[in-house]
Specification:
The chain has one domain: Cupredoxins -  blue copper proteins (Immunoglobulin-like, Sandwich), CATH 2.60.40.420. The termini are far apart. Helices cover 4% and strands 37% of the residues.
């Protein structure tokens, strides 16, 4: 049996818009972080900005934000694989009016920009939701300054 819902049109996240009550107000970002997704299958050396996440020193090299800031993350995929990038503790918006999400797929060789409001202080993981990539090092800490 095939559910009727599967017969509809297939859309991508870039074709969707956030509902008015959850859309972020238009505003310039206060902070921009370039999140370069690096690595390859050959070396299985997945990383963010060329640095593998260090489980022995998890607070090293955090992506710093301040409470109240509008933050833009520019995901730049330099690899030949898809990477579903997930941010804990927040939802972000794709582009200026796109959907609110906590995970977005970054296609090989592509760039995706997302914005979020730093409104949940703490230390939050940003990682590839392909567990094998995250565990190999494609993770980073997003940390609020004290």
């Amino acid at each position: 049996m095939r559910p009727k819902e599967l017969d509809g049109e297939i859309v991508t996240a870039s074709q969707l818009r956030a509902a008015d009550d959850v859309r972020l107000e238009a505003r310039k970002p206060d902070r921009v972080h370039r999140i370069e997704l690096t690595g390859s299958m050959a070396g299985y050396d997945w990383a963010i900005n060329g640095k593998r996440f260090d489980m022995a020193d998890p607070t090293a090299h955090p992506l710093l934000v301040d409470e109240g800031q509008r933050v833009r993350l520019d995901f730049v995929n330099t690899t030949d694989m898809w990477h579903p990038m997930h941010l804990h503790g927040h939802t972000y918006q794709l582009g200026g009016t796109g959907p609110r999400k906590d995970t977005t797929i970054v296609l090989p060789g592509k760039k995706v920009s997302v914005v979020f409001d730093a409104d949940n202080p703490g230390q939050w993981m940003l990682h590839c939701h392909n567990a094998y990539h995250g565990e190999a090092g494609m993770m980073a800490l997003v940390a609020y300054r004290a």
